[in-house]
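Fold this complex.
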Amino acid sequence: MTRVLVVDDEPALARALAINLRAHGYDVDVASDGRGALAAASTRLPGLVVLDLGLPDMDGVQVVEGIRGWSTVPVLVLSARHEQAQKVAALDAGADDYITKPFGMNELLARVRAALRRASPAEPPLARVVTGSFVVDLAAHTVVAGGRDVRLTPTEWHLLEVLVRNPGRLVLQRQLLQEVWGPQYGNESNYLRVYVSQLRRKLEPDPPRPRHIITEPGVGYRFEP
Amino acid sequence: MTRVLVVDDEPALARALAINLRAHGYDVDVASDGRGALAAASTRLPGLVVLDLGLPDMDGVQVVEGIRGWSTVPVLVLSARHEQAQKVAALDAGADDYITKPFGMNELLARVRAALRRASPAEPPLARVVTGSFVVDLAAHTVVAGGRDVRLTPTEWHLLEVLVRNPGRLVLQRQLLQEVWGPQYGNESNYLRVYVSQLRRKLEPDPPRPRHIITEPGVGYRFEP
DNA sequence: CCATGGCGTCAAGGTCCCGTCAAGGCACCT
DNA sequence: AGGTGCCTTGACGGGACCTTGACGCCATGG
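Structure:
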């Protein structure tokens, strides 16, 4: 089964994570600081890293950078609420997803499964994405919501396409902006707000309470199938 | 099961192919020259064509072009080693794959399966497209709208053909331009505007409010059956 | 408790693209 | 040579789309 590296300086939380992950069939290594994390990542070659940002010896971002220097292993970041800035920096550095403490173990396990599923051998390029509310046909360039064809403007479509091609995955604001508007756009998050709003109005059954185009405040958006 | 058209002028090879394909559950038609191949392709509507390039009456490339004129059926080319140039020309003309003689029957069967798999989810090769307002016969090269034959210029027909071959799918402006006008045309979208307008005037019941030739602003056009 | 920042929503302005018409030029047929 | 399509090209309204600013709301933090 897959090997998971848990990096956390709180022994209680580290143990809880290890027990739960082992109970679901993963092999688990544990490190309690940044140096140990980098050492374990390079020697044990885990298939996934769960990384708590609050470490005693070094910044969590440095750990992510240290791993990304030589590996593409998925990194799942745990962050306390006051570590907002670090969290964004860690995602920018190449982390794949994050969970805010406190969190439910079921949510963590789901994120672990999702990250591993994405990392596994080249998912076939999907041509059609189906949700409970709408269907996106990437090949035909069409969207059907509530049984009716929906007309999208080029920008709306492009934005939806990027989100939908990363199902379940967090997509950073900067990433979306550069993909849809161009490399020189990185901070005009107001564009995102306007177009996400329009997409939800056209696609979500209850736009004020979106179920598929989810906001990750301060970070980005996530498409949930 | 799928119908396969075998085109080969060597009776021994043609028979061997037919026997092996039938043994694997395909329905097989056989043609021994180019004229017969084109006739069989248009009347029997095979799901795959196995085409030997060395034909007595016409160039194999012409056969491919003749088929591609109205159909997207996968074409698998058989070529002798010295027919290298023809093979490339055939692929350029729209053939999907090739096998060099001599070849093993297992390899051919694998290529056949691969070609069919690519073609599926297979729209049955459409030779006639019907909408609420007009009928396009791709084989006969005719259009009937409102009970009357419609005369189309070559460019109009070519444009309509590309759209109609991609029912329900968005076709990009550049794609249309390069397909109809040639590879060096990519940005002269004014051509499209003129000819789309003419097509709508000839085909749509209410040209200002088209129901079948739909504009996707800034992107391309879409044919809706 | 209030202040703050990010988010969602709306409306208005300006720009770009689309549809349409008409004239010129070229090739082919008679 | 003349005539007849057909393709190309320019001009011009009208509409769709993108951008931008303003405002209210909620959650977070002091």
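Residues 81-82, 153-155, 188, 190-191, 194-195, 217 of chain A lie near DNA strand D (CB under 10 Å from a C1').
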